[in-house]
Amino acid sequence: MESNRLLEMLRGHQGEYISGEELSRRLSISRTAVWKQINKLRQEGYEFEAVSRKGYRLVHTPERIQSAEVLSQLRTKAFGQPLYVLEVVKTTQEELRKLAEQGASEGTLVIAEEQTLGRGRHGRKWYSPAGQGIWMSLLLRPGQPIVFAAQLTLLTAVAVCRAMRKVSGADVGIKWPNDLLVQGKKLCGILVESISEDELLKYCIVGIGIDVNLQQEDIPEELRSVATSLRIESGARQDRAKLIAEIMHELEQLYDLYKQEGFAPISHLWEALSVTIGQRVKIRTPEGELGGLATGLDSTGALLMTDDHGKARTIFSGEIQLGR
Amino acid sequence: MESNRLLEMLRGHQGEYISGEELSRRLSISRTAVWKQINKLRQEGYEFEAVSRKGYRLVHTPERIQSAEVLSQLRTKAFGQPLYVLEVVKTTQEELRKLAEQGASEGTLVIAEEQTLGRGRHGRKWYSPAGQGIWMSLLLRPGQPIVFAAQLTLLTAVAVCRAMRKVSGADVGIKWPNDLLVQGKKLCGILVESISEDELLKYCIVGIGIDVNLQQEDIPEELRSVATSLRIESGARQDRAKLIAEIMHELEQLYDLYKQEGFAPISHLWEALSVTIGQRVKIRTPEGELGGLATGLDSTGALLMTDDHGKARTIFSGEIQLGR
């Protein structure tokens, strides 16, 4: 409620500064409380300029992702349709899984403005604040042998990486298997959940989380050394609807290519965008830590490396730390 | 209701014959209706002797699977516990999946007396009548890379095959990947559903359906050339609780072995019990039909064959017809 009245006042000033003291007096709350409300609004995507002695000025009201805007920019046959744009959800994965169980078609896309229980790889929490990022899940029904599941994860990383580079110009690269980075800092995570029956994939829920328009101060302090956003790296606010449409386009193109030509062309594209291949890496696997040189992908999508004793290794699962 | 009164009368005769005519008269229904009721009871596991001029005699009342009986015979650390013995369900897979989502532990077992929507491989209906078979689902949480999912399917086939041979003495063999046969006729199907996150298996719902005590006349006529039961093949009624306990024992032993030693020992056991390896096979794959000689398993659990043109093939998914 206080934040609503605060917004009203700042809007009433038409982009002029209004001092913290005046806000405090008019709202009958302390200066600290004003500052807390401002921060809360920042997390919802509002942007303020704060200048000492002058006060606060509203410079940006958060946009919402509009279905119509996404749909009008889609250049796909099926990916991104039907489209569900939701407000606050626990996770888009969960929402899409319900739809999948009810028979939703391949290409169905669920987007949320905010996730309250966003998760990353290995069950880690994924910070998904309102209005600043893209939190979405796409349904695939590949009917492939389960042995190839990792390939779909790599394919997704390639598609999202290409779309982000194209739309923003930022120098985005892929860390094996599917983290997207700029200069060693993460700005996109991909999480693929697969449901299989015997040796065939029944469906895949492809979760994509992108820090699009977060600013330095929106990123929790303890994450600033490892996390960034497309806005920080490109120097410009990005149009989320446009980026979503571009990702759907890239994904559908690569998926069609994969179904026709198999994994080889995807593997080449992945290696070209990779920041892992040709690097010394340290990798945490279920069996312990391993150091060595990452050399390429095998035909299933596993990582090939030569360990510190010169032995060839195939890594199916693990987490990489670069350049150590 | 009529079948209840019919049973009462037959029970009242203490194993002596009672004529169809008398049953018809006492129940005030036609002879055909008597015969229909007898058949209905047979499907529920009751057994009758029918001798012309003498009439019907009740020779067996169906047993139910008792939790206590299974639990008292378990020799496992975790497999088979907790145990849920249910009456009629759509599928045990669905029941166990609900439990898995709520955090059920590895080894949790769901058994049902009857499934109304029992399914086999490739979405086919699986006939699961009351009281005659074992329809059950076991929860595994292997945490293995998804690329190895097929191995768990093969492991299950080995364990169930060994348990069936041990308990009944029947000459049960494995058709790739996981059908169990005696002399070319199927008596057990296995269906493994896996839920994965990125490259790791989160959990597997291992479905096992065994035709245990069905008699020739219990098997739908259109299936008699391809389906059989353990009772038909061993010549004796089998104790279902004992067989369940033995399967849990074999599964846990092999699963522990697999976790310690990997797939190689499981692969050897599978090949030894296989009716596929060393045979000419015709196989229907997603890419079309293929003929050739099945030669073995690869390290992921895929089938290796030499096709009719002498070319080596790796089959990840498909359905085999033997000896064509």
UniProtKB/TrEMBL annotation, chains A, B:
Protein EC: 6.3.4.15
Record Pfam families: BPL_C, BPL_LplA_LipB, HTH_11
Enzyme kind, highest EC tier: ligase
UniProt cross-references to PROSITE patterns, sorted A to Z: BPL_LPL_CATALYTIC
DNA-binding region: 20-39
CDD domains, sorted: BPL (cd16442)
Keyword annotations from UniProtKB, A to Z: ATP-binding, Biotin, DNA-binding, Ligase, Nucleotide-binding, Repressor, Transcription, Transcription regulation
Positions bound to biotin: Q115, R119, G120, R121, K186
InterPro entries: aa-tRNA-synth_II/BPL/LPL, Bifunct_BirA, Biotin_CoA_COase_ligase, BPL_C, BPL_LPL_catalytic, HTH_11, Transcriptional_repressor_C, WH-like_DNA-bd_sf
GO molecular function ontology, one term from the record: ligase activity
Plastid as UniProt keyword: no
Domain BPL/LPL catalytic, chain residue ranges per copy: 68-259
Highest taxon listed in the record's lineage: Bacteria
Catalytic activity annotation: biotin + L-lysyl-[protein] + ATP = N(6)-biotinyl-L-lysyl-[protein] + AMP + diphosphate + H(+)
Role this protein plays: Acts both as a biotin--[acetyl-CoA-carboxylase] ligase and a repressor.
HAMAP family, per database record: Bifunct_BirA (MF_00978)
UniProt similarity note: Belongs to the biotin--protein ligase family.
Descriptive protein name: Bifunctional ligase/repressor BirA
Gene that this sequence comes from: birA
